[in-house]
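Attaching the record inline, Q. Sequence:
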Amino acid sequence: MNRSSIYHSAQVKVEKRFSKGGSILGSYTWAKLISDTDTLTNWLEASGGPNAQNFNHINLERSLAYYDVAHRLVVSYVVDLPFGKGQQLLSGLTGLPGKIVSGWSITGSSTFRLVIRCRCPPL
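Structure, as predicted:
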C-alpha cells in the first residue's frame, strides 16, 4: 500500500542582539501538510480521527492532514543578569565569589500555534 504526504512551508527568522547582553529570536512558519496517511492511524489518536472511506484506494483520502499546523510562531529570549565581573552590580568581587555570581542569565521560549481544522461531512 503506497502512502504519501506533501509538506510546504515558508519560514522567517528575526534575531536581535542587545549591546548590554542578551538577545531575542523570533521564528515564524506558515505551512501546509497534505496527506493520505492520517486515516490509517486514527485508532492511535486520542480524538479518534476520521476513518478511511475505501482502504483499497487510499490515494482518494488525500486531504489536509489532521495534524496540520498552519501557523507557528516561536519567540525565544536570553537576558544577561547585571551582576558579576564587568557588570553594574557586584563587579568588584574576585576569586571564587566573583566566579559564582558572574555569567548568569534568564532564558525562555514561547510557542504559539494556530490550527485550523475543517471536517466537513461528505456530500
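The first strand starts at residue 5 and ends at 17. Strands lie at 5-17, 23-35, 63-64, 71-80, 105-114.

More tomorrow.
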